[in-house]
Amino acid sequence: MLTEKCALIGECKIINFPKVIDYRGNLSFIEENRQLPFKIKRVYYLYDVPAGATRGGHAHKALHQMVIALSGSFEIVVDDGYEKNSFFVNRPHYGVYIPPKIWRELTNFSSNSVALSLVSELYDESDYIRDYDEFKRLAINGWD
Ligand code: TYD
């Protein structure tokens, strides 16, 4: 159990993307199975987030996710049911990878921030765990 716990929260990590610096403006790119440890099936983004709002507040059973601050800044809090970690993101040339079975919350959005998500699955509500107590039970007792 201890090994699984350490492995899970430790898998939430910052991934840096290539950055092509140019006097006309910088360029970054992301390729599935290269910069990302999964194939991208869906892209979505959060914008017009009002001050003080929190997004996320759920875990996924199977979905892998990369979250990038395309504009502005925000905080990504990840939780494997035992341990939490927090990432502050404020540049578009890196992102935070979140594997399945991790509770996530996005908070402290600056004005005009845009949170881009690249994910491994099509939208499927049955992949979500939206109740924190249920998430804790699964984290402790196993997801299978
Ligand atoms: P949700 O995933 O809970 O948002 P977040 O985690 O970013 O706070 O989704 C909010 C609503 O939007 C929910 O009713 C489902 C819907 N939705 C889609 O229809 N398609 C999508 O790709 C996503 C991400 C959400």
Question: Overall 3D geometry?
Answer: globular
Terminal CA distance reads 14 Å
Helix content: 10-25%
- Fourth-tier CATH superfamily name: Jelly Rolls
DSSP E strands, number:
12
Q: What integer is the average pLDDT? A: 95
Strand order of the largest sheet: 1-9-6-11-4
Number of domains: 1
Report the order of strands and helices: HEEEEEEEEEEEEH
- Low-confidence residue ranges: 1-5
Rg for CA atoms: 15 Å
CATH topology: Jelly Rolls
Strand content: 35-45%
Ligands in the model, by name, code or SMILES, are: thymidine-5'-diphosphate
Structural class: mainly beta
Regarding CATH, which class? Mainly Beta
* Continuous helix count: 2
Largest sheet: 5 strands, antiparallel
- Could you say what the CATH architecture is? Sandwich
